[in-house]
Amino acid sequence: MALETIRLGSFAGVKQGACAGAVPLNWAENAQNVTTVGGKLGRVKGYQPLYPAVPGLARKLRRLFIWPRENGSMDCLVAREDSLFRYDRGTDAWLDIYHYTDDMDADIFDFLKTKIGSTETLLVGSGLESILKWEGGTASVAAFGSSQGLSDKAVNFLELYFGRLFAAGDPEHPARLYWSQAPGDGRTIEDWSADESSENVSGGHVEVGTDSDPITGLFAMSNQLLIFKRDKLYRLLGDRPGNYRIVPVEAALAQPIHTACVLYGDRLFFLTDRGLYFYDGQTVRRTAHGADLLPLLSQVDFSAAASAACGDTLYFAVKENGSSVHNDLLIEYDVVRDCFLLRRGFETVDIASCYGTLYILTGGGEVAVLNQGTTYGGEPIEAFWETPWLDGASALTVKQTVEAVLTGTGGPLKIYVLGETREGDSVALLTGADRPTEFPLRSMGRRLKLRIENVSGSDFDVSGGVELLFDEQRRVL
């Protein structure tokens, strides 16, 4: 009989799918609504509603767009399946600024801020009608382009690359990539036709690939335009039609949903059911810990996914529970630390990042600021962090827990230890950053699993790690 300890000196992210012995002690097998920045463990902040709920929630919400204006103001748009809404600060109400002729049966809206001439303009692609353009404020929504300029196509992927507008998603020509004329000398991005004066200022189009498989996403990087198709990834190189080259990217990958792709610097990250990948300008790679959530990712629904980058964190909203109306799982990926964390407890329709602030469109129709406040829209934040099975130095001995010792502040905090023979838990307030708090426990088994969870949404900060003390005995044969 001997007293032994298992010590977790710091806290990292969530790692699933590996055998217990292959998971470092400071990684969780499961966790939700916690932060581990700096190796400390704490409850995340919640969200605070910024604007009231969009009216008519019997119609499904689709997309959120935050538009920072050059004059310092900010416009907020929400796409419902049948209408575009703009929030008006003066009346504190949502204004229906455009009504679609048909309901949108998919999450296919794309927003792009640009300039037409010297006018700051927002473009909205839906895939069912020609592109819309809006100059912001109280201006009315107008149709973009013209039949004469060959730019009245019903596209829903929009990107700017070397000053031109590129578009795809035309249902009549699903594999076709369009580009506009080069702006200047009377030309604008609303004209996609040829210019007799020079090929290099002309608009045009090309069929991408050797089959009719549709284009499923466009993403502009600093020196190339990425073109996703269902079966392959292509890149367009060159700065004018005379030297455009479209070449395939020779890499094996699971094709992503375009709304689960996000640019971070000059790298494109995308989350799929096979993990987190990124394109580095030459090829596609999976991040070092990109497979850490494979068991979870293989079960979630990406069909209405949303994504955004804010600071050094990437956010991906997906649906975990089939009975949820909207995405009910928010996956956070810390690019610098290469680790995942999870948030649950609210539904997310869409995410938008603007100047270091992350905005969400909630399932209840509110536009809110994430990482502010102490609740999720008034609901307590239920947080926990759970280890894989721990066997100490050997699975041949029986462990009987004595206590867990944590150093930190906040609470109350519940420490739960599951043993194969007996389980136990203990609740206490953390007594201070320099005073360890003891949690008496009576669990037993050859393996133990430690779970740290808050009580009724309580806030906490575990800054000194965790030490689990147990009595180890050899089994009597």
Describe the structure.
By secondary structure, this protein is mainly beta. It folds into two domains: 2-43 and 384-474, Galactose-binding domain-like (Jelly Rolls, Sandwich), CATH 2.60.120; 47-370, YVTN repeat-like/Quinoprotein amine dehydrogenase (Methylamine Dehydrogenase, Chain H, 7 Propeller), CATH 2.130.10. It contains one helix and 37 strands. Strands 1, 2, 3, 4, 32, 33, 34, 35, 36 and 37 form a ten-stranded antiparallel β-sheet that branches. A seven-stranded antiparallel β-sheet has the order 5-31-30-29-28-27-26, with no helix packed on it.
Blueprint (SSEs and pairs):
Elements: E1 2-8, E2 30-32, E3 34-35, E4 41-43, E5 47-51, E6 61-68, E7 74-80, E8 83-88, E9 93-99, E10 110-116, E11 119-125, E12 132-134, E13 142-143, E14 157-161, E15 164-168, E16 176-179, E17 204-207, E18 215-220, E19 225-229, E20 233-237, E21 245-248, E22 261-264, E23 267-272, E24 275-279, E25 284-286, H1 294-297, E26 301-310, E27 313-319, E28 327-334, E29 339-354, E30 357-362, E31 367-370, E32 384-386, E33 397-419, E34 424-440, E35 444-445, E36 448-454, E37 460-474
Antiparallel strand pairs: 1-37, 2-32, 3-4, 4-37, 5-31, 6-7, 7-8, 8-9, 10-11, 11-12, 12-13, 14-15, 15-16, 16-17, 18-19, 19-20, 20-21, 22-23, 23-24, 24-25, 26-27, 27-28, 28-29, 29-30, 30-31, 32-36, 33-34, 33-35, 33-36, 33-37
